Amino acid sequence: MRLNEKLYTSEELILAKKLIQIEIDALNRFYKGDTSGYRNLWSKENFSYYDANTSERIDTYEEIYDFLMNRVEGKVNVESYEFLSPRVQFGKDMAVLTYHLPYDDKPNSLHYNVIEIFQKTKKDKWEVIHSTWTPLDPSKKDKITI
Asked: Which of 38, 60, 68, 112 gives 20 to 30 Å between its CA and that of 44?
């Protein structure tokens, strides 16, 4: 994981590293079939989610909880993954974490671009209020040209 430290003030850099570590901790659990990292990270009061496996947006924590517990919990087992090109962008009491997430677990090689939108709560806790996992075709590694 490489974070372009030039993009941040010293305070932002500390927070960016903290948010990235929270995400990595959730991913480490997730890829062992344990969704609790994300269940604890995602806002219970204000949450939405787009997933590669669903055609409609999930609009509540209750919906994502049901999705995780019935379709994901205990069913994911990935030996290794990469957390690439993270970037955190800051706004007032908000932060957007984006990164590239490839894993090559033969025969299931998948790559995602992930977006996590964090919001600082009234209790100074950072929670994700929106998450999107966009699947990519690993064979198409070129940048978009216009």
From this structure: 112
H or E segment to which residue 118 belongs: strand 108-120
What single letter denotes the amino acid at residue 81?
Answer: Y
Burial classification of residue 55, based on how many CB atoms lie within 10 Å of its CB (0-12 exposed, 13-18 middle, 19 or more buried): exposed
84-91/108-120 β-pairing:
unpaired
Peptide bond into 138 cis (omega under 30): no
Q: Is residue 20 over pLDDT 80?
A: yes
Domains of the chain: 5-136 (3.10.450.50)
Residue 53 pLDDT: 74
144 pLDDT band, cuts 50/70/90, is: low
Element (H, E) at 24: helix 10-30
Tokens for 81? Answer: 């993954």
Q: Given a cut of 70, is residue 1 above it in pLDDT?
A: no
